[in-house]
Each structure stands twice: as C-alpha cells, then as structure tokens.
Design goal:
DNA polymerase, domain 1; two-stranded antiparallel ribbon; 13 helices; 48% helix
C-alpha cells in the first residue's frame, strides 16, 4: 500500500514530519512527497544529520557535487535531488538561495530499451488472465505499471475510448487512449469487480481507500462501485493507517514478476520489464507518424524533450546508414 499516505500528526515536532505536513498543505502528490523526503533525508545524513535550518548554499553545493563525482548519478537523478532541496529551502524554510555552483553529473540519460512489436506480442502470448489484460494496457495505452494498478472503474470511458489517469507522475492527471481490442475483456473485468464488490458489501466491507480526504467530503463514495479498483487484490487486507478492512488494488510487484517470467519464457535477452511496454508504445506511435506533441500528452511527459528521446530509438542502425557489408 505504498501509494496511501502514511498518517502524520499535525502536532508532530520532527523535521521530516513537519516537512511532510507542509507538502500535504500544498497538495503535493504522494509520490512527490516520498521522493522529496527521501532526498532531503539523504541530504541531512550527508551532513551528519545536522538540521537544514543551519545550512545553506555551500552545503547544497557539496551534496550535489558528491552525487555527481562520488555517486556518479545520472543527470536526471541529480536534477531530482536539486528540485527536492530547492523546494525544502525556498518553500518550506523560506530561505533565498544564490546561484548554486556545483559539479554537474556527466552521466547522460540513456536511450531506453524498447520491444519490437513482435517481441511485445511474444511476451503477451506468455501471459494470461488479469496479467495479460494489464500488460496489454501497458503496451496499448502507454501506462506506467503503478498507473495501471491504480485505475478506478469510473476512469474507464468506453464511449470515448479514453482512460483517465489520476495523479500520474508529478501528481498530474491525463487522458490516454483506450484500445478498442481491450474493451470486451475490460467490460468482463468490471462485471467481475461488481460481483466481488457485492460480496464484500454483504460481508460488511466493500470500502476502498479514497485520496485527499475525499472520504470526508463524500462519505458514501468509498463504497460506490465507480471508486472500486479495476484490478482489485484477491483478498481483503487491513489498512495499517486506518485499521479498516479494505480491498486494495493488485500490487505493481505482482505484475512485474509475471511480466519478467513471460520475458524469460519468450527468450528475450534485453534488459526489460513492464516499463519496456511503455517505451514500445511511444516508439510505435512515432514510427506511425503521429505528432510528437500528441505523444507527449498521451505519455504524460512534462517536457517534450523527454518524449524526443524516442526519436533516437527509431533511427535504425547508425542514423539510418546502411552498412557496406549489407550490400553483398
């Protein structure tokens, strides 16, 4: 249940707890909260657990240079750490910072590994049941695995062939396409969830976790069918944050294990996994001639430069150059 915010007392005195409370007051996505807390804690530990209230630009520069020189992190990782620390100082601590001077990471972002269409189909052929439907959504709609597991019934629009992705990366909502091929199995899946939900209600359960205190605003929504997860867990579990017995969604790790097994069974030796389907989705759309801005929106990328990396993937063998040995 890593996507459900941990409870924090409003009267908590700890620095990290206060930082969490502040981020929640600004409606930061829980994934962003987790990432920022992780980097702020690493920053604090790097400086022997001193309070950031007594630190400034010099300590920030030391930490960022350490990440580049000693830890050899990628450019994107260093940027994420920078974003977290800048947010900490400027927003939370209300401290102005001068222009920072630090060692930039030299490890550029790598070109993503992508399935060919034949490889993707081969992996899918080694899956069945719920795992197959979910993997087909990863490939057919360009979803991240966490986005797929968290889909609610109300976010599937069969009339418009649209999937609404709530609180994706960066806490942003977006729409992506719903493959027509998947409409019948998804309709069957919803009927299964309806049946399962009725059984839960009869047993005195049937309540699902609602984000952002929606349970207070809409007290009956937690038991409404529309809010139920499209891919629910097979068993009920006690929510450690509320002690309520609920049916959560399938864990991403469950699908990741199934896909990894299917990749091995398909004989694919590339370093790949669930996210490779998402890369393949973007690559297929580029190959089909779709506009890169459209692909950016479907993928939920904040910057088109992130989407443009797929243009490097579709350039065959050395920017389309034909090898002389192939002229024989």
């Amino acid at each position: 249940m890593d996507d459900i915010p941990i409870p924090v007392s409003p009267n908590a005195k700890g620095f990290i707890e206060q930082f969490r409370i502040f981020m929640r007051s600004e409606n930061k996505a829980y994934k962003t909260e987790q990432t920022y807390v992780q980097w702020v804690w690493r920053f604090i530990c790097f400086h022997s657990k001193q309070s950031p209230r007594g630190m400034g630009a010099f300590e920030i520069e030391q930490f960022l240079s350490h990440l580049a020189v000693t830890r050899n992190v990628s450019v994107n990782t260093q940027k994420t750490a920078l974003n977290a620390i800048i947010y900490l100082f400027r927003k939370f601590l209300k401290m102005e910072l001068p222009d920072l001077c630090y060692q930039f990471s030299s490890q550029e972002r790598r070109i993503p590994v992508v399935f060919t269409h034949e490889e993707a189909k081969s992996v899918l052929n080694h899956l069945d049941g719920i795992s197959l439907i979910m993997a087909e959504l990863l490939y057919g709609s360009g979803l991240r695995v966490s986005e797929c597991t968290r889909i609610r019934i109300k976010d599937v629009d069969f009339g418009m062939n649209v999937l609404l992705i709530r609180e994706g990366k960066g806490g942003k909502d977006r729409c992506t396409l719903l493959p027509k091929k998947l409409i019948p199995p998804l309709q069957d899946q919803i009927r299964f969830v309806e049946s399962l939900h009725k059984m839960d209600l009869r047993s005195g359960c049937g309540e699902v976790y609602l984000p952002n205190a929606l349970s207070k605003k809409y007290p009956n929504a937690a038991k409404a069918i529309g809010w139920q997860y499209l891919f629910p867990a097979l068993s009920l579990s006690k929510d450690p944050r509320s002690d309520k017995k609920r049916r959560h969604h399938i864990m991403p790790s469950s699908l990741q294990k199934q896909v990894k097994t299917a990749i091995n069974a398909a004989g694919i030796r590339k370093k790949s996994g669930c996210h490779t389907f998402r890369h393949a989705f973007a690559t297929r759309l580029l190959q089909a001639g779709y506009d890169i801005r459209t692909i950016q929106e479907l993928m939920g990328h904040a910057d088109v430069a992130t989407t443009e990396i797929y243009t490097h993937v579709i350039k065959q063998g050395g920017k389309g150059v034909k090898s002389p040995i192939d002229n024989d």
